[in-house]
Specification:
CATH class of the largest domain: Alpha Beta
Radius of gyration: 21 Å
Number of domains: 2
Strand content: 15-25%
Distance between the termini: 16 Å
Helix content: 40-55%
Structural class: alpha/beta
Number of helices: 16
Largest sheet: 8 strands, mixed
Strand order of the largest sheet: 3-4-2-1-5-6-7-8
Length: 387
């Protein structure tokens, strides 16, 4: 099947949603589907290319640096998706929230092609305004409100909690399929190494308000009072990078906290393998891929007790949950795990077992393919195999 894939962001920008869309494209291509990704140009990535068996067409006449230039990015994506959507040959559209869903929906109606929407989470007006500020918050809220009212052929999401939110907005429950997240165990195991001699904590994700990395840094200040040789590695980048650097300096933690920037593939997985604990302090998540990657690396996880995290973590069995906005409790749990290596190793093994059973990209892509079957009238060999 020929699939037109339109994400909001794409490589080299790396976040949970981008990892999801990258691997879905990769594993769909591996199964013989022809994938064309439409995305905007970024510095160092301005030419069309083929990677992992799928094609990437970069839109626009100039590069957009990062994700913050909303208007320029929206203009490029809107015009580019409509032009290419009317021009390219494909059977189905797979588009992710938020803005790309508007031009892809228009194209799907003009070309009479089925469209499947991907939602990782629903944010709502109050959160968007708090996270993005007045102007950008209003734009995101308006765009989110519009795309939630469009009549897609099917909707994919990564968690049951996001499905409930989608149903609450009025989307037909029968159209929504929870496909989850996954990891590439072969790639993760190639990076396997031993745990660090020093107690090592890692965070993997964007450096933005909703991720609450500042809470982790404040908690870490308390941790080193009890585990003085502990170190914190922050993997990712984002709008709050400079602010978090200043927080680390003010707390006197410069020699203990390491900012690694975005890491991808083997470099990232090796660091997770080395770590004794991965902490996800985010206030809002659909289903964090970083949690599943850590479990695959037999690294215990601590996350905030919110809906998405509760779907993957059984507290005390394959990870730990702490109350929202409770820095003291977060610090206490980190200290507890770092001081009990035997328990940490047992938790790590449990996490790996769960990933092998439920969280591989092969399983995710199988569910995505079945959603194609729901909406497509095209009779192909891969459909016969699924049946």
């Amino acid at each position: 099947m020929k699939i037109l894939l339109c994400p909001e962001y794409f490589y080299p920008h790396i976040g949970g949603g981008e990892i999801w869309i990258w691997n879905v494209a990769k594993f769909l291509a591996k199964k013989g589907h022809k994938i064309l990704v439409l995305t905007y140009k970024q510095p160092g990535h301005t030419k069309d290319e083929s990677i992992n068996g799928f094609k990437i067409k970069r839109l626009g006449s100039f590069a957009v640096n990062g994700v913050q230039p909303y208007f320029r990015r929206a203009l490029i994506q809107g015009i580019g998706i409509i032009i290419q959507g009317l021009k390219q040959d494909y059977d189905i559209i797979l588009a992710s929230q938020t803005f790309p869903l508007i031009p892809t929906y228009i194209v799907s109606k003009m070309r009479r092609k089925p469209i499947i929407a991907v939602f990782h989470n629903i944010y709502g007006p109050s959160f968007s305004l708090k996270e993005k500020g007045l102007l950008k918050g209003l734009i995101r809220s308006l765009a989110e409100g519009i795309v939630l009212k469009l009549n897609y052929d099917a909707v994919l999401t990564v968690s049951k909690s996001t499905k409930r939110k989608l149903v609450h907005t009025g989307i037909d429950e029968n159209k929504i399929k929870v496909v989850g997240v996954g990891v590439d165990l072969e790639k993760i195991d190639l990076a396997k190494t031993t745990k660090s001699d020093k107690p090592m904590i890692i965070y993997v994700g964007r450096l933005v308000k909703l991720k609450q990395v500042d809470h982790l840094i404040i908690a870490f200040k308390k941790v080193i009072e009890h585990v003085p040789d502990a170190e914190l590695f922050i993997v990712g980048s984002g709008a709050l990078k400079d602010e978090l650097h200043k927080l680390v300096d003010r707390a006197g933690l410069s020699s203990k906290v390491h900012f690694n920037g975005f890491l991808f593939g083997k470099e990232k997985f090796r660091l997770i393998w080395e770590s004794h604990l991965l902490v996800q302090p985010s206030a809002i998540e659909g289903l964090s891929i970083a949690l599943v990657e850590a479990m695959a690396c037999q690294t215990p996880i601590i996350a905030i007790n919110i809906n998405g995290s509760k779907e993957v973590i059984v507290d005390g069995e394959n990870g730990f949950l702490v109350p929202p906005n409770d820095v003291d409790q977060l610090a206490s749990k980190i200290i507890e795990i770092l001081k009990d290596r035997e328990r940490a190793e047992a938790i790590g093994r449990k996490g790996r077992e769960l990933v092998e059973e439920q969280y591989t990209w092969e399983r995710v892509v199988e569910k995505v393919e079945k959603s194609f079957l729901m909406v497509s009238k095209i009779e192909t060999s891969w459909l016969i195999k699924i049946r």
